[in-house]
Amino acid sequence: MALEELYREVILDHYRHPRHKGTLSNADVHAEGLNPSCGDEFSLDLAIADGVITDVATQGQGCSISQASGSMMADAIKGKTLEEVGELAHKFRVMMSIDEGENPVDPARPGAVLGDLEALQGVRKFPVRIKCADLPWTTLADALSQAES
Ligand code: ZN
Fold first, then answer.
1. What CATH code would you report for 3-148?
2. How far is the CA of 61 from the centre of ligand 1 (A)?
3. Are 7 and 122 spatial neighbours (Cβ–Cβ below 8 Å)?
């Protein structure tokens, strides 16, 4: 299977079967995001204890890129420390060419931990869709800034 086809399958799987969908009754923070250019919506509940994201729930609607990115993000951040989540968010934004840095999924740099999120790197070729992929991450940044204050 060609890599692009594999990536498309991974994105569609997350879109059709979003992980951690719903709300948390014990949420410590809640954030909502909107991508007006595409009409994507995303909301995020986090439970945080001792600097660790112990539980995650998301809701949203919109295009497959935005919703798949949210599902992958929820999978990737659950159980991680806030520091690890910050590192992951940075790697994601470098991969998508939003932030400066060496591409963490550059094959010359093995050991990247983005996992399924790597499937979104093809979106870089479509600048208007980068905002779709980034929506869950801007929502996460909002939630984490609430958690800090
Ligand atoms: Zn979108």
1. 3.90.1010.10
2. 9
3. yes
